[in-house]
Fold these 3 entries.
Entry 1:
Amino acid sequence: MAGIEKTQAAEVIQRAWFSHMDKIIFQLLKHTICAAENCVTHEILKKVCPSEAALVKDPSVQCKVRFRFGGKNFPPFIVFKIFLHTGGHGNKYFSGKNTLRPSSEAVVDACKLMGNRKYYDQIIQDQLQFQKYKVADEVDVVTMKDYMHFTSFLDETPAYLGGKSNCWRRLSLENFPKTMIMYDIMDYATSGTLSDRLQKELKYLLQKPKSKEMHHDQLRIVSQVRTSPSPSSLSVSSLQQYHQQLVKPKHSGRRSKQARMKIAKMRRAYKKEQEKNMEEPNTQKTNEKNQHRIIIITPSYEILGVNSPPSDDELEQEAKELFTWTKELCLDNS
């Protein structure tokens, strides 16, 4: 009996925990759907279809993109649909289904151009749609409810069957900008992995907004673009910071002014001594180069003579004598 009670208690705790996590995910998804509809509609639509994004951004076309939850299981996925506001004037959609009526002669020409097989397939599709939806044509609209069914039918029907092909479309994870937290929220809802930047803002996002300003601030956090530095710049900056930390002396707050002055004086003296030691080998090398001598020694170790390199004056004298000698040579030959 005790084992059964423990398993039942564990199941209750597990259900409560799963329910708590589902509430967290749903609250984050609500922030995502509000931010998508009010802040980053164009960025999301540009990833789905750039041509539709340009059309929605056109001020002459009064469009509104709506986002909703969809799906039979939890967590739900997000769908969107484009609505066109005409100001009560309405729009006229041209399609072959509305233009080619059975009483017109164009139907015969269409049958000849399409061929009997394609034409009969089109008629069969129309009959199947009527059997399924009951309201598949303007003639079938009687009440306001029929009109709503008919508009929904036109939106969901493909264009080649006479519809608008403007149904609720599902958004995937790739359709959300990776530089925003809403991408991390969708990734957390699908895979269960919690990113670092979402974890930092999670506590604030899960709070119930007490005012409109707080709600707008939460939407701003979800839709804010967060550019991460490139790996190269990150490594260079980190190396520079590390080098500055090594070079920068660590002073203690307890050192007096005299102690700091003494340390600075010792550092200057040490630098001078180091520079002096660096200069001495160079001077020795130059002196050794200039003081090469040739010593002539006999087998009995008697020094016959020492030939030292000539000075600058001797070299100039030799050059003058050589010049006069070559000049006399040229005169003798002539």
Entry 2:
Amino acid sequence: GEKDNGKNCILSCEKRKADDTDINKDLKKAKLETKALKAKRPGFTDDRYNETSYYIENGLRKVYPYYFTFTTFTKGRWVGEKILDVFAREFRAHPAAEYERCIRAGTLTVNYERVDPDYRLKHNDLLANVVHRHEVPVTSQPITLVHIDEDIVVVNKPASIPVHPCGRYRHNTVVFILAKEYNLKNLRTIHRLDRLTSGLLLFGRSPKKARQMEHQIRNRQVQKEYVCRVDGEFPDEEIECQEPIEVVSYKIGVCKVSPKGKDCSTVFKRLGYNMSSNTSVVLCKPKTGRMHQIRVHLQYLGYPVVNDPLYNHPVFGPLRGKGGDTGGKTDEQLVRDLIAIHNAENWLGVDAADDDLLFSKPVSDDKVGEDDCDTGPASRESSPRLESPAPGVTPSSIMTPTLPSPSSGAEAPSEVNSPAPCTLAPSPVASPSFNDDSNDAKSDKVTVATQTGCTPAASSHASGLATSSASGSNDALSSDPHCYECRVRYRDPRPRDLVMYLHAWKYKGPGWEYETELPLWASIDWDEPENS
């Protein structure tokens, strides 16, 4: 009996080992399949830089529309469901008939293969969707090199240009422009700046250097100085604000002073006061690196950045958040009001993975973590992550329902203010007419919209074209019959929509120091032009 029991035990153990081996083999196979699918994703080579080119018009850097493929893996809750049912239920930006058209046309695929609309999704399925991308204009001011050597690249970033691809920006980002126009590729970010913030931006040219600089920032060995222009007469004496800052919403990237927040400190010193405009130029020295730290502390002190579209807004109450007073609003109400009032493309942030960005609400250009204090270290390889599934990086997709329209308060999509890229079927490229006449403006087929929610006069696209590559001709202004945005004529943003008066001026660390020239608005006697 004991022998039989021992034999059974051995057999049982061997069976468990065999089962474990099979499981491990299955897991290994799944990982290899996943790796293979990821490797097939478009955008991991230098070809991505040649997808399109720039042209300069009205002082703006613009990008010719181009085709792009978004990808994501099947979420667990979708497994076993029909692909069409999933899209019709979860992604209401388009009717089910449009998704069915895309599936049948082969522009919405599974594992890069065409499937039927009743295909049932499986674990590890990779969904890919081709879109016709229209990017948002940024300033045509050049990115200037402050310092470059074999280890590091330091630039002076103009306002309005995001550091990384995010929201509706991809080629119109610092990392793409540096790669395309300066041949500076495979850079690793050391810190970040908000899209509307200008100034010093550091990149490592090697993992070792990036880690070294990241360590210095994390351990507060880097002294940072910013210059800003604020409302009102800032006190003459030096002020240190040590109010803790809490993130109210990671989804939209909004913070406030709160006892529940993280400890932080910013030292402020007035550089001068302009009586005619009732504004002050202030030097800011953040000792810590919380999200939006400088802007939130200035709001709390009652001297917000003059043109801060977020923290200098009456949505924070009659006092605009001074002293932490938001007019009695709860955090939930504040977030709801912010979403309802502001155009999401202007300032809202997001904290979402690539998969969520592909199939969720639209994201904006300023993701969580890109704070004005360069918070903490953000070392990573810029170029490879551009199209890879990294949090908060890859742009929003065609399948994203849009935010409610501020005017209606309803749940209907606000397509004019924040149109999402659209689904399409590949077709011969045609050159649309860009005559800016009144008949077009009144046409039922043309919607007049804005890229940033502003309403200046539209300009003609037919003149003033200048490209950064050989492909820059009017033919590059391609249209697609299924593209919503090809039927929308956008007004250009005004200069005031492209800047916030906050500039990263000086950074100093162990054995190194960099600084930029100051922007025009940092001059004490400067007054904002009326026509800006």
Entry 3:
Amino acid sequence: MDRPARFFCPTCPYVCHIDSKVKIKRKHRLVKKELDPIISKDDELDNLPETEAPCPNCGYLKAAFGQQQTRSADEPMTTYYTCKKCRHNWKED
């Protein structure tokens, strides 16, 4: 079964028949672009709520925090802290 080659669009009725004399070669190396982060590492702590929690590393009293449910639903949430001065991370279960 020798059918003619064709390009077609799967979402509309467009069809383009290809002559048999045409050879298609495609060799493109795709280079991944570096993307700028939406939130930089410096802005990361500014978007989190802040509380007074002493840092176990440097003793600074202000820390950013976030909570996540890491265990079953009847257990309390885990609170993650990041020191605003030295960026040390710790958690409280």
